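Page 42, continued from yesterday. The earlier attempt failed because a stray header line got pasted into the input along with the sequence. Redoing it now with the clean sequence only.
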Amino acid sequence: MRSFARGVLGVLGMLWLAALPGRARADSDSLTDLLGPREIAVGEAMRGGATGQTGAAQNPSGVSLNRELVFEGGYGYRSSDSASLIGVSACDSTNAVPGCFFYNYAGVNPEMGGETVHRSTHVAGTALSRMLVPRILVGATTKYYHFTSSAPAESNASGFTFDLGMTVRVTQIINLGVSAQNLWATTSSPEFPRAIGGGLYARPVPMLGLGFDARWRLDGADHRARYGGGAELFLSGSGSQSGYPIRVGALHDDGLGGTYLSAGLGFASATWGIDVAGRHEVKGGSEDLIIASMRFYGPRLPAPAVD
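This time it went through. Structure tokens are written below.
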């Protein structure tokens, strides 16, 4: 187990070194800038198992999949546009209406026309979830955003936008998830494009999770698809409440022509956890991302049963 963990750490170290030099193309928006290390590490394939902060980013209905109080904060850096990505959240799924409060900031500095411009995006919102019956969960996210740009061709914008999601618990080990991001908006902004996605998440044994997702961007001329998959292996000692989640994934965006590999490593105990993930573009460009987050838990109760 230790040699496996050292190998994953070595991969993350190489991704970090790769993220330091140079800039390449910048293809950021809220669909990717709000994601945390767990989603990044498994190829963004968490719509069927999107608990906690992941639910706020990918599928709000997933907040009801467990019962816990968790506070999370994270930071990420992306080399292609010198982006700083910050996120904090508080999620409580122990009450009658599970939900999350969250705030995200993305400050990016892409090159446009030979000059470096600065964009900043602030997003604050809440995600609420409800279990209609033990097998069907629904959820909605309300986000307020404020976007500014120094590029002459881009306009500042502020407004509200809304997401919807549903999770179907097919069996105790298989979930199907579908969600729509930015489905309605009070003000149109290219940083908040409409998109719809779905995925499958399976946990064949308690220590192993597998996921596959696909997402289609609905705004713009290309309506491009982005799809990926990954696995999470949770290693722990017999009877221990602590362990080490190890994650790997792959992702492809057919509109950008980009293919990415990702990996992540974490530590989780009954009261706190930490996750680190890295992603490297192996085809179509030179985007590199490294992101980390820390979580602190309050009360944690058994997850709801399917029946």
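Notes: Helices lie at 2-19, 30-33, 37-41, 53-57.
Reminder to self: strip header lines before submitting.
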